[in-house]
Write a structure and sequence with these properties.
Blueprint (H helix, E strand, L loop, with lengths): L5 H18 L4 E5 L2 E8 H11 L6 H13 L3 E3 L14 E4 L12 H32 L2
Antiparallel strand pairs: 1-2, 2-4, 3-4
Helix pairs in contact: 1-4, 2-3, 3-4
Amino acid sequence: SQVPSEKILHAGVVLRNVILSRASHMIRDRKYHLKTYRRCCVGAELVDWLMQQSPSVHARTQAVAMWQVLLEEGVLNHDIVDQEQNFQDKLLFYRFLEDEAETPLFPLVDELRESEEELQETLILLSQLGPDALMRMILRKP
């Protein structure tokens, strides 16, 4: 796996912080087949959330493409299938890179405020990178 670019790594931090600030229930431990998956989110919920954050995200496929950017860079990881290359708008578990380490779940108040201020800029960046990520997803499908 590659090392994420600084911009995309930062985008992941911003999104995670804002999710924790506005919808902390989305990032939590979940059980599946008697196994507990720590601090993860559900793909379909991430898509729903992203669509609620910006009027410029019009379609679920657009939101999927934006999460795909983070998945390709390793800032977001599929929790059960490590080799999963395509973000899916389903009941699949994803974990932010920040949650792989044993970092404190909640960021500091200053970090949260900064992330709130940077959210729209982050969404613009991901919406610009999303179409190329979506094209790569389509080309990868067998």
